[in-house]
């Protein structure tokens, strides 16, 4: 019996444990921190051996294969030790994929992954496909492979999940964009991060597809210098393409098969240039999976968007409150500010992953009248924007940030939470940050 050791007792770890047990592995879960009550109950109910608040080396180094949660860096001593002992260390996605014959659409990129994933899932479900959604969203991929019988999956994949793949493949891969993010995990080398994203195409063959942003320099440069076997399917807002998706006369034109789609931009339910790109990518993937044109168009019109992504929370005394907590990097916040058509009070800050805020200066100068900092260390924000914004206030939590913003905002203006940073200093995760913001707004 093969021994499967799982590092991390969260969503992906516990899902992998269930699948591993079902497939006849001897399973052991080890978490350096505590395991939450919800997941502990699943492990106990399924009689899966686990430990928490420690890693017992002898129990881990006896593994035939190790699945590590995406949050654990490759550089920690235990992982290096496993690799020295030639024990394969893989991601949940790699482990689970070998047990399903489903058609997989894998979606990665620095921004737009979640929206594109949810939008494509929405279209395919409406088109009558038996389709699951997983990756960074909802129940883990491994748990769904164990318990469901989906014929297709739409998977949102982070670079950390892709770092742990060997033979995993997406029949359709979508690369939304690449901008500097998580550089702390890639030795502050942007090229290493780019290579990591492109692992999504490493096992693709000539019968597979790579849908990508043809306006993105990092993507274009990689494609010039490296080969992929997949058929390239580009989308662009800047140029007309003979094959792919582009904009002409305020219409989205999609020309990848005989069923050409022509749709007015104004009918898209999600606004902003970045969402136009997300819609192009999702539409082309849906067409490649034989969804009908009419279903695609109707789905694009009634899609509701992702929670914590430019989500309208409420209007209080004439002031709009917008939750964009999912903006954990500068590029995502750039999109958010670009979409703002009112004078804005901007709530920003958190754990900086090596951010360069300079790209935001023109937008901040044009649209932002005050900055409310929401982080433990805000020096970089104050240094960057101190010359262009008169008012910068530091706060110690969502409630205080909202109250300060309310004082600063006048009727007809907007308060935007778009932190450009990770959330681990004051919150559990970006969802917790977004929920606390929404609660504070509702209590005004």
UniProtKB/TrEMBL annotation:
Keyword ATP-binding: yes
Catalytic activity: UDP-N-acetyl-alpha-D-muramoyl-L-alanine + D-glutamate + ATP = UDP-N-acetyl-alpha-D-muramoyl-L-alanyl-D-glutamate + ADP + phosphate + H(+)
Enzyme class at the top of the EC tree: ligase
GO cellular component term, pick one: cytoplasm
Taxonomic superkingdom: Bacteria
Domain called Mur ligase C-terminal: residue spans: 308-421
Positions of the Mur ligase central domain: 107-286
Stored SUPFAM superfamilies: MurCD N-terminal domain (SSF51984), MurD-like peptide ligases, catalytic domain (SSF53623), MurD-like peptide ligases, peptide-binding domain (SSF53244)
Biological pathway: Cell wall biogenesis; peptidoglycan biosynthesis
GO biological process, one term: peptidoglycan biosynthetic process
This enzyme's EC code(s): 6.3.2.9
Cell cycle among keywords: yes
GO molecular function: ATP binding; UDP-N-acetylmuramoylalanine-D-glutamate ligase activity
Family to which this protein belongs: Belongs to the MurCDEF family.
Role summary: Cell wall formation. Catalyzes the addition of glutamate to the nucleotide precursor UDP-N-acetylmuramoyl-L-alanine (UMA).
HAMAP family linked: MurD
Protein name, as recorded: UDP-N-acetylmuramoylalanine--D-glutamate ligase
